[in-house]
Specification:
The protein is of the alpha/beta class. It has three domains: 33 residues, no CATH class; 310 residues, Alkaline Phosphatase, subunit A (3-Layer(aba) Sandwich); 79 residues, Immunoglobulin-like. 28% of the residues lie in helices and 21% in strands. It has 16 helices and 19 strands. Strands 1, 5, 6, 7, 8, 9, 10, 11 and 12 form a nine-stranded mixed beta sheet that branches. Strand 18 and strand 19 form a beta hairpin. Helix 6 packs across helix 13 and helix 8 crosses helix 15. The longest helix is centred in the middle third of the chain and has 23 residues. The radius of gyration is 25 Å and the shape is globular. The protein starts with 5 loop residues before the first helix and ends with a strand.
């Protein structure tokens, strides 16, 4: 006789549970051994992830500046390059934009880390499509209708929204501050999150206020719609009670992002069990006026980074004062980076990979990945190569922050991705993630001849693990997989044909589960 899985039992029998429990609903049983057995894969954690979406495509080369190639950058992007003397130095070979003073301080305090070159193969360069890819966790040529956060929440809270809220989860599963809920929160059957429209909506809700409407027939209808909307908000009372528990907060800058993060901190301190929050800072599509002509340290990009820096610093300080800082991991994301070269409008155009930033008490401080390199005399088609797939970040957060098992990760993503040692002081961090990278400082892949014409040979090192070696063009599109599989310990070489490739710059990428390395190549006629 086939055995019904526990999650299928919940899915198909949740509405009948009251009949076998003398009319007591699931929410009453949520702490009983009976229901806990049904939720045996549920991970009980008070950890929280806050995502800051830098919407529009942040210019990574103007945010985290590689000093070791500053001269090449100055030649490639003269319209936007920032005076080297104004940059905020982090390490000998890397610096921040001068508007990021507060974030530089967080880095110095060990509360910030940077992951270089995050992106995905075959970058689309469309805001809409690339955002969908990041929010769903899909490949560039794959359409997925659920979000990576929604699939995770559905795994932890199956059958939502039936019989929710309940004692196991009385609060919203995820909250986004904004007017639309991202597809990232979309589950298989329904959206797994709720929207807090804006700070005004939030404070009207918790203060039981309704914004005045015009004294017209249409205005009276608007008042009625607002009232019904407020009454129908399932979690409105929950949010109000949580906010009421927080008597005071630290000061924040008077900016949109800071106001969003202030709400998030208040709800966390108020005791919500919500695991996922998303806020956004718009305006990073800096095709023009990224800088002002007379001072490249000023302009639209500088204003955005000033807002980001001040808001994040205030948020972390407030978390500390509320006693919740150890529970919160904050990260930035953006749908893509910008081009290597600048344009004639004091801006930059859509590009490929860019750095991601992480903040908190329980992140490993420092920089993951190498400084990006650029080819000599880059053209408009040339791009920064991807060092880390964005889904590696998602794997790391779910595995090492939320303690998801490999089995459950396989239910969220169809592929395995390397994890990075970003998280510390978490009981679920795997031994492999904790290990110090034994390969640090070693060159793991070499290519010769380089430049090449009709063929080239990749020589790489294996410690006995699974390896993949791939060739990308300068726009970030994958050309071919050169080697893939588990290789015995030692050195290996693979010759690959290049006769049909057009002349230009290429990038070869070596990756294991825990490490990556890359080299620029040049094809000549």
């Amino acid at each position: 006789m086939p055995v019904m899985k526990r999650r299928d039992f919940l899915k198909y029998n949740s509405l009948t549970i009251p009949s076998i429990a003398s009319g007591i609903g699931v929410h009453t049983l949520s702490k009983s051994p009976f229901l806990q057995a049904l939720y045996n894969e549920y991970v009980d954690t008070d950890k929280i992830l806050v995502i800051i979406n830098l919407s529009g495509g942040n210019d990574g080369l103007g945010t985290v500046i590689p000093l070791d190639i500053y001269g090449k950058l100055a030649d490639a992007r003269p319209e936007v390059i920032i005076d080297k003397n104004k940059l905020l130095k982090l390490e000998d070979d890397i610096a921040f934009h001068p508007s990021m003073t507060e974030l530089r301080n967080l880095y110095t305090e060990g509360k910030m880390s940077i992951v270089q070159g995050v992106g995905y193969p075959n970058q689309d360069y469309s805001h809409f499509r690339s955002t969908d890819i990041w929010m769903t966790g899909s490949d560039a040529d794959e359409i997925i209708y659920t979000g990576w956060l929604g699939r995770y929440l559905n795994l932890e809270y199956p059958n939502f929204p039936v019989d929710y809220p309940n004692d196991l989860m009385p609060d919203p599963l995820g909250i986004q501050v904004g007017y639309n809920l991202s597809v990232a929160f979309q589950g298989p059957a329904s959206s797994m999150g709720m929207v807090v429209a804006d700070p005004t909506w939030f404070y009207d809700l918790i203060n039981d206020e309704i914004q005045p409407a015009p004294n017209t027939q249409a205005g009276k209808k608007l008042e009625y719609i607002r009232l019904i909307t407020k009454q129908s908000q399932v979690y409105g009372e929950v949010i109000t009670k949580a906010a009421a528990k927080v008597a005071s907060q630290n000061s924040y800058p008077d900016t949109n992002l800071a106001n969003q993060l202030k709400i998030v901190s208040r709800l966390i301190a108020g005791g919500l069990k919500t695991r996922l929050y998303m806020v956004s800072l718009d305006g990073f599509d800096t095709h023009d006026n990224q800088v002002i002509t007379t001072d490249h340290s000023q302009g639209e990009h500088a204003n955005l980074l000033t807002e980001l820096s001040g808001a994040v610093a205030a948020f972390l300080k407030d978390l500390d004062s509320q006693g919740t800082a150890d529970r919160v991991l904050t990260m930035t994301m953006s749908e893509f980076g910008r081009r290597i070269i600048s344009n004639a409008s004091n801006g930059t155009d859509h590009g490929a990979s860019a750095p991601m930033m992480f903040f908190g008490n329980n992140i490993e401080p420092g920089i993951f990945g190498s400084n990006p390199n650029i080819p000599d005399n880059p053209t408009w088609e040339d791009n920064l190569p991807m060092q880390f797939d964005f889904r590696s970040i998602y794997h790391t957060v779910l595995q090492d922050w939320f303690c998801l098992s490999q089995t459950n990760l396989g239910a969220i993503f169809t592929q395995n991705f390397q994890t990075l040692p970003i998280v510390k002081n978490s009981p679920c961090i795997s031994t492999a993630t904790k290990e110090v990278n034994r390969k640090a400082g070693r060159s793991l892949i070499e290519v010769s001849p380089n430049p090449f014409t009709t063929y080239s040979k990749a020589e790489f090192v294996s410690d006995g693990e699974a390896i993949i070696v791939q060739l990308f063009n300068s726009s970030g599109q994958m050309i071919q997989t050169i080697a893939q599989g588990k290789f015995p310990e030692g050195k290996h070489s693979v010759t690959f044909e290049t006769e049909l490739l057009p002349a230009g710059n290429y990038f070869i990428r070596y990756q294991t589960q825990y490490f990556q390395q890359g080299k620029w190549l040049v094809k000549v006629r």
